[in-house]
Amino acid sequence: MNLLIFLIIGALAGWLAGLVMKGRGFGVLINMVVGVLGAFFGGWLLPKLGVSFGGDIGVFITAFIGAVLLLAIIGLIKKA
């Protein structure tokens, strides 16, 4: 059940990140996949930077930050 909640939170974070990063998104479905990947990326990166959030809201914030960063990185690579 926790995995399902994690996937839903990641998908919502990816959708929101796609809205925030206008012009760098790849459509709703891909942005949701990026959100799930961003949740893993944010969960790995933020503790290394000394930042951590607790609870379900914290998971969402972490996923959102990771998704925005991934969309920015993908956008830079896509331009090259």
Task: Name its key features.
0% strand, mainly alpha, globular, transmembrane helix, Transglycosylase, membrane, Transgly_assoc, 80 residues
Description of the molecule:
With about 80 residues, the protein is mainly alpha-helical. The chain has one domain (about 1-80). Helices cover about 80% and strands about 0% of the residues. The protein has three helices and no strands. It has helices spanning about 1-20, 30-50, 55-80. α1 crosses α2 and α2 crosses α3 (about 55-80). The radius of gyration is 12 Å and the shape is globular. InterPro entries: Transgly_assoc. It is a multi-pass membrane protein. It comes from Arenimonas donghaensis DSM 18148 = HO3-R19. Belongs to the UPF0410 family. Its main location: membrane.
Biggest beta-sheet profile? none
Estimated helix fraction = over 70%
Give helix and strand order, one letter per element, not per position. Answer: HHH
Distance between the termini: 40 Å
**Number of discrete helical segments:** 3
Structural class determined from secondary elements: mainly alpha
As for the number of domains, it is 1
Number-wise, the strands total 0
Radius of gyration: 12 Å
Low-confidence runs of at least 5 consecutive residues: none
The pLDDT mean sits at: 83
In one word, what is the shape?
globular
Strand content: under 5%
